[in-house]
Specification:
Radius of gyration: 22 Å
CATH class of the largest domain: Alpha Beta
Number of domains: 2
Largest sheet: 7 strands, mixed
Number of helices: 17
């Protein structure tokens, strides 16, 4: 028996074919067109492109494996969180999906916060801070800015729910991904009536009911089943990419942390109860196993390295070699990585900056190293907040594209001052989706098994961690203070994007 794990991210779709022993037998990958926008800060994609990429990546995995599609009995879907996929009464897409890194809804975010009594009251009532990128403000944005489109809205889905909908015909939401909408009561795991009222009194009728992550969506049907000649395939609940990466890294019990170095940077933990941050910097999400997932998210990691790679025509190996040529701390050069604004710290109007350029640091090695360090200093600010909430991580399991850069890992271990473990399977979100589907399938067949037991047996980490360097850690501690002082001293709201001349 085999399972499929699907991860539909910002940049592309990845598929892994996994047996019930946790071994990856084949994989496929296909890119998405880059996000586009018509308004400042807008980032959106066409969901139809996700389906095209899924078919291509799935075809690659099946071709590589040479297995019969009928051997696949279950699948799970991971996807980028917080997106807004609006469907009409017939299940057709009304407009492109607004994505997690869309910062065009600042006004709507504040309007919803104020409707509940302000930011502190919102956190007290809902359980988490309403970030600009969350789904709630995107729904209100469409209601205010595209009333004709909004009048057609019948169903609100998140990206992973939309893929499930295409595969099963069932609109569905589970606790994990739904907790990132900003519309859910985190403690009670129900839709929050006041938030619904602030957006649209009729909104609940457009939202699927909430389900425990163990409950599957249904069985595969429609175009994908016919195209690949699948048999009977159980479609698990799936979840957001961070929720699935938690499963895929074995982060399903206390005292572990997962760090994902992808387009965004996230650090998250399993918790058996909600962890509410009164400042709202650590999101009090639910996970996709039935627990909670306190999470730090920054918006700028590999998007910054991809920019400098493109600018200077560098490979990933070039990037690592250049960073090694510069000293730790890049001679004091500080990079503020806010190319897409920022969520933590909450700086939607922020922009990137190099601080400390001089004759020595104005070199490609120093620029590259400061970019790698700057993205982790940004995470380091939130990491300090995590410690203040009495979360006690003893090791970090790292995944994502950045996990392949050994220099970046050494930088990360020393800035966060915690040992890092890489994983045998680096595509943690796709792998986690496959494992969740196996868990769901076995339980559906009457074989009661815990997700903690499954991941402990199937997820394999490196035998030797990347340890912090005490001397470098001391230097980074001082530079972390400078990094924080730099972004805190800039009046970001006075910065506006200079319009292009006509």
């Amino acid at each position: 028996m085999l399972a499929l794990g699907i991860d539909s991210g910002t940049q592309g779709t990845k598929v892994v074919l996994v047996n019930f022993k946790g071994q990856v037998l084949a994989r496929g990958q296909a890119s998405h067109p880059p996000p586009f926008g018509h308004h400042p800060g807008e980032k959106q994609q066409n969901p139809q492109d996700w389906i095209k990429a899924l078919k291509k990546a799935l075809g690659q995995a099946l071709k590589e494996s040479k297995i019969k599609p009928q051997e696949i009995v279950c699948l799970g879907v991971s996807a980028q969180q917080h997106g807004f996929v609006p469907l009409d009464q017939e299940g057709n897409i009304i407009r492109p999906a607004k994505l997690w890194n869309d910062t065009s809804t600042v006004a709507e975010t504040e309007e919803i916060r104020q409707a509940l009594g302000g930011e502190k009251a919102f956190i007290d009532k809902v359980g988490l801070h309403l970030a600009v990128g969350y789904t709630a403000s995107k729904i209100l944005w469409m209601k205010k800015n595209e009333p004709e489109n909004y009048s057609r809205l019948a169903t609100v889905l998140l990206p992973h729910n939309y893929l499930n909908f295409v595969m099963t015909g069932v609109p569905h939401m589970e606790y994990g991904d739904a907790s990132g909408t900003g519309v859910m009561d985190i403690r009670r795991r129900t839709w929050h009536k006041e938030v619904l009222q602030a957006i649209d009194p009729q909104l609940e009728s457009k939202l699927p009911s909430l389900s425990h992550p163990l409950q599957p969506v249904g069985y595969l049907t429609g175009i994908l089943k016919e195209y690949f000649n699948f048999g009977k395939v159980l479609v698990a609940a799936g979840g957001g990419d961070n929720m699935m990466a938690a499963i895929g890294t074995g982060n399903t019990s206390p005292h572990l942390a997962t760090l994902s170095l992808g387009t965004s940077g996230t650090i998250f933990f399993y918790s058996p109860q909600p962890v509410i941050d009164s400042r709202g910097e650590i999101a009090a999400f639910c996970d996709s196993t039935g627990g909670w997932l306190p999470l730090l998210c920054t918006m700028n990691v590999t998007n910054t390295t991809e920019k400098i790679k493109s600018l200077f025509n560098l490979s990933n190996q070039d990037l690592e070699e250049l960073a090694e040529k510069a000293p730790a701390g890049a001679g004091g050069l500080i990079f503020l990585p806010f190319l897409d604004g920022e969520r933590v710290p909450e700086l939607p109007f922020a922009q990137g900056a190099f601080i400390g350029l001089n004759r020595e640091t104005f070199s490609l090695p120093s620029l590259v190293r400061s970019i790698l360090e700057g993205t982790i200093f940004n995470l380091g600010y939130g990491w300090a907040r995590i410690k203040e909430l009495n979360v006690d991580p003893r090791e970090i399991r790292v995944t994502g594209g950045g996990a392949k850069n050994k220099t970046w890992l050494k930088i990360t271990a020393s800035i966060l001052q915690c040992p890092l473990f890489t994983l045998q399977e680096n595509e943690a979100a796709a792998y986690g989706a496959a494992l969740q589907s196996i868990w769901s399938y076995l339980n559906e067949k009457g074989e009661t098994v815990s997700i903690q037991e499954m991941t402990a047996n199937l997820v394999k980490k490196s035998s030797e961690p990347v340890e912090p360097d005490p001397q470098v850690a001391s230097l980074y501690s001082e530079l972390q203070k400078r990094f924080n002082l730099a972004w805190q001293s800039i009046p970001w709201k006075s910065f506006s994007r200079i319009p292009h001349p006509h």
